[in-house]
Amino acid sequence: MNLTTGETSLLYNGSDISEIVWVGQSDTSILYINGTNEEDNGGISLYAGDINAIDEAYLIASLPAPYSGLKAVVTPSGNINFLLSCLAWPNGTAYNEELAEEPLSSARIYTSIYVRHWDTWLTERRNAVFAGTLTGGDRYSLGGSLKNLVTGLANVTRAESPVQPFGDSGDYDITPDGSTVAFLTKNIDLPLSNYTSSQIYLVPHNGSSVPVPINAFSGSSTPPNAKGASARPLFSPDGTKIAYFQMDGISYESDKNKIYVANVNTSHFNITSLAEDWDSTPDQLRWSADGTSLFVAAPDLGNEPLFQVPLTAGPGFKPTNITNAGVVASFYVLPNGNLLVSDSKIWSSRDFYIIGPRGRLVTDLFRSNQVDPELAGLGPTDVSEFYTLGSFTRVQSWVIYPEGFNRSRKYPLAFIVHGGPQGGHYNSWSTRWNFKVWADQGYVVVAPNPTGSTGWGMALQDAIQGNWGSLPYEDLVAVWEHVNSTFEYIDTQNGIEAGASYGGYMTNWIQGHELGRRFKALVTHDGMVNTVASYSTEELWFMQHDMNGTLWANRNEYDEWNPINHVDKWATPHFVVHNELDYRLPIAEGITLFNLLQERGVPSKFLSFPDENHWVLNRENSLVWHREIFAWINHYSGIKEVMPSDQKPPSAQAISPSSHDSTSPASSDTTIVDEEKNETAEEIARSRTDSESEEENQKALNAAWGKHGRTWMWIGELDYTTIYNYQNYAASDFGEIALLGALMTVGTIVAAVLKPPLAKISDVVGRAETYGAVIACYVVSYILCASARSFGQYIGGYIVYSVGQTGMQILNQIIVADITSSRWRGLANALVSLPFMIVPWCSAFIVDGALATIGWRWGIGMFAIIMPVCSLSVIVPLLGFQRRLERVRGGAARVHTKTTIRGFAAQIDLGGMLLLSGGCAMILLPVALAGNANGSWRAPWVPTLIVLGVLCLVGLGVYESRFATKPAMPPRLFKNISVTLAFAIGFLDAFAYSVTHTYLYAWATVVHGLDPRDATFLTYTAGCVQVLTGLGTGFLMYRSRRYKWLLLIGVVVRLIGYGFMMRLRGADNSLAEIIAMQVVQGAGSGAVGTVVIVVAQVVVPRADLAHSTALELLCIYLGNSTGSAIAGTIYTSLFKGRLRFWMDPDTDPAAINRVYDSITAVVLPETGTAQRNAVNHAYSDILRFMTIAALVASAVPMVMVWFLPNLQLSDKHNLAGSEGGVDSGVQDRRGDTGGETPLQKWRRRIRW
């Protein structure tokens, strides 16, 4: 491959060349191994030549054994020192199977373990590193014989390098000058099968002295905890240092790889650790060209990118990844310092590219899905990911879509569990478990990474120890439930599950538990079924670590997680694969599983390959493996066979379904439809392309918010800013100003709890129809309030008004959220609120004029005419658009179904609505009214209602999670940390605003003598500043694509505002100071309010957008309600006392009661008198108490914001798409999103 152009050319068309290294007298000189040997059967030949004339290469030497793993360097003298590896006899000579004498007996005799390893029975032969030298000149020649550098190194066991079965040339290295060799071997002082410990040795290339361990247990500079497996020794470019990995755990194969660097000096290694606290375990290693840093590859959030680690990295250093999506297969540092990288992804088998040391793309060389016609069309859109809360932290899952995926249809679920268990599903290509191949059968594949998975921190990985059947199973159940409740296009009723190795164990465990009944078929590949029999494996350290001890010392744990103990519950059809050469999980496990399934009468099939190990690698065997498994699962999931009938495996015809409900083949209502068949009207209505949907959204937006519609609706919005002021005078006329807090509480409770059901109603009956119902509520409420003959009747009208108001708000928010991208959602929301910049100032004049002429009753009543007239400009175009759309689609725009009253109640979650409204009302209303009750808080009805309210809210949680068929508050949303924090911050912000504004109008009128117009100006100053700040915040979110720090700024500004408000909102403060406090407080709340609604919307899938929006507004309104309730409590409980404190002791109690009940000048002492000043100070004291409550509530979000993920806002509708909610770390892997939020780390520490 030409690294400048990316062009590839064929150098040699033969299978005999197996390894090539660049070494020799020029940049194009090479040394290579020819896998044939004319002199010795089973040997190899060593050739030298030029890359541009490979046919002219010449033979250097014929070597009498199957050497491999060639490494070579040019020495200062011009010779070539090289290394090879090969099996060797105990005496150190190389082993050649074809030349070895056949024994007369086939007996095997062992006195220590291993007996066998991976897929091989072990013998006395061990791998060894051999060194040789090619002398220089016009043509190289072999100088002397090869030297075994490992022989003679033995104690409890003999040294071996590379270490079987997976060791390769990465187990040894040679310095650039060819003088010194490093190799690793298992610790010769410990039994092989019980310990993972290995050490790295240095030895001269000529073998002139014995090997010396760098990291011996007793070494003077060996870190005290470094006793586990070592890996990847690699010399620096100048040969003075060596880097390597090593684990701490002496019997834990998946412990964290720590990065070490040592001097190449046998008298003083001076081992140092780099980035020791990095919560990751790298597994590939290269030096930078200048030798000042290392490049490593490490698992990270389902990918395996590259990281750069300088030699100066201290313990707290956190490396930054320099590649993005995909898993790095290999990489090389080029002479100019750039990196040649080879990686793969789920959608691409191999990509090659060159990047700079900091990750800048230099040259994009090769993309397999753009070159290979067999992979054409594959791309990132075939894959997505989601996170959901598992047993104790977030669990990531990949979602892979079938070819021709259409979201309006349903596809059976293929639920695939990974092995390990310390492993993971990564964004990489596989020829064994290729997710896209599974998906293209007609499934949506979900591949979760539960507890035990690598790449999400060591805590998640290590938590598998002692928890094989608990935490991972709980995670998988949580993922399945999330998929079941979130993805309308995934058919979980006809889903299948499959897993290999530990994934096979988990499949067997699932078979005996509830999750097993949720699948139509299961597939176990080489999985354990009997943990008590695990000592038939080879690496005994594995089970002894994961089960917290030996079988005899900790038998209970082996029994606790043993699938075979639950055999009485096995019922789901089960396909079993187990191979004869699998010595890690011997074939007896698979046969036991199959035998038990057969004896239980569970439909089952067994597949075995005598020539395969833990994996199926032979091409023809792999084809059979895929055909047999797919025929099995496709039968039970209801997918039509993908192979021609004459190519189906015969066994596929013999499968007989079980009569058990959960194990029968897919029901006949499966919605996968052949493209060639006619579709139903409902399918036609739902099968719109994305571009059509966006066009329709834009038409809907224009229909609802066209030029005239916006103008008239802004006029209609005058009602909100006038009603708030009129109610002060209504309450005063009825002598019930003390109940103002209760009135606000009732209204906000209604407005809060109706948001989720109203959102659902708009989906069921249509946007325009719901708008009409909302306007009807407005009209009725105006009539009731204007004609009220008591404050109780006025409250009744206000409740109806709150229904209309909350319906209008939620409809507007949903429409905006539906048609905007996450990036400019905040700005769009602020633009919708723009009328608030105008109408408060207009309403001030309206209120002033109305009170001076027609009074508050007609001031309210006139909106019974204004509102419906204005709303027609929205409802009529929207209805017309809906009807036109139905005609265009041939009547299929909406599929009408008959709905019973009970069904409608279930759809709007009537039970949840009643529990929520009842609970909130019974808690908040007593709080607001207790001050007026005889005996105050001692009145028995107060605690009684509060207790009942708490019980209702507790019952709400149970009802929503277990009984609600269409929960308006889906429990899954509250498992999303971003959503939960957005709800909480929105609640507290609204609480603080409400508690300081409920009596602000009354205070301004009484204390500062403002007329209705000026009092209105004051009360809405903060709201207008909120709108302006919201516009600015939305714009900054659009430009920066971030939100966390904007939210933090808003929280800080708001807190400062409430702090100053303690001193600058009193009877003696100037109007300028009071307005300034309104401005500061409004600026902070504007930023907070804009961000939290965006956060609640962008981290959930589109299907949950209305729910999350409604719940965010619900929390905001509950905050308002709680704030007004607390304000009412403070007023009713403390105001009379403060009046008595400030007023003359001889003041008539009736006069105090009149001031307590009304704000009108008729009952207030004359301005400037001592009595009036006393009233002013009493009012200011009460407002200060309310401000203290706001200050406390504003401090809490300061902490919450730090735990909020800082995701990157995209130009897409949201960050989760349709695949599920996100929290952090899944959008911008080079940003500051990280793998865990601080809150999740805190949770982990608390649990462990």
Supply database-style keywords.
single chain, 8-stranded mixed beta sheet, 41% helix, Rossmann fold, transmembrane helix, Growth Hormone, Chain: A, 34 helices, alpha+beta, 5-stranded antiparallel beta sheet, 4 domains, 1248 residues
Brief synopsis:
The chain is α+β, with helices and mostly antiparallel strands and 1248 residues long. It has 34 helices and 34 strands. It has an eight-stranded mixed beta sheet, with helices on both faces.
Assembly state:
single chain
Compute the gyration radius: what is it?
37 Å
Main sheet: strands, sense, barrel: 8 strands, mixed
Kindly give the count of domains.
4
Number of strands: 34
**CATH architecture identity of the largest domain:** Up-down Bundle
What is the rounded distance between the termini? 50 Å
Question: Structural class of the secondary structure composition?
Answer: alpha+beta
Mean pLDDT, to the nearest integer, reads: 82
Beta-strand content estimate: 15-25%
CATH topology of the largest domain: Growth Hormone, Chain: A
Uncertain runs with pLDDT below 50, 5 residues or more? 642-712, 885-899, 931-935, 1217-1221, 1223-1248
Sheet with most strands: strand arrangement: 27-28-30-29-31-32-33-34
CATH top level label of the largest domain: Mainly Alpha
Treating each run of at least 4 consecutive H or I residues as one helix, how many helices? 34
Helix content: 40-55%
CATH superfamily of the largest domain: MFS general substrate transporter like domains
Shape summary = elongated
